[in-house]
Amino acid sequence: GNNKTKVGCGGFDRNPKQEVEAFLAGKQYEELYRTGGIVRMIPPSRSRPFFEAEAPPIVGVGESIGTVSPISGEGISCTLRCSDIFLDALSSG
Q: Which of 5, 47, 59, 86 is the most buried (most CB within 10 A)?
């Protein structure tokens, strides 16, 4: 809405930054925010916890810990599954 959109790209064989820049070339736009990084492409069933013995207890699930679909790159379904796993772990003590 409000004449704003998000543009993003990811992949294995190409440079995502170059792909986005090529897509936007010649278009009039104002960049409001830019972010980027490496996404761990691993399903929840193969994810392992991050742990440091002296660290305060912090819990992350789904995209906050990098779980995304290795096929599509989306993270909502993995986030929902991770949330279920977390709630099961909490309820089982």
A: 47
Place 26 in a pLDDT band, splitting at 50, 70 and 90: very high
Phi, psi of 70 (to 5 degrees): -70, -15
Task: Give me 29's structure tokens.
Answer: 């736009």
Cα 49-50-52 angle, rounded to 5 deg: 130
Alpha helices (H) along 12-75: 16-24
Sequence-separated contacts (24+) of 29-37 with Cβ below 8 Å: 32/4
> Residue 16 is encoded by which pair of tokens?
């995502």
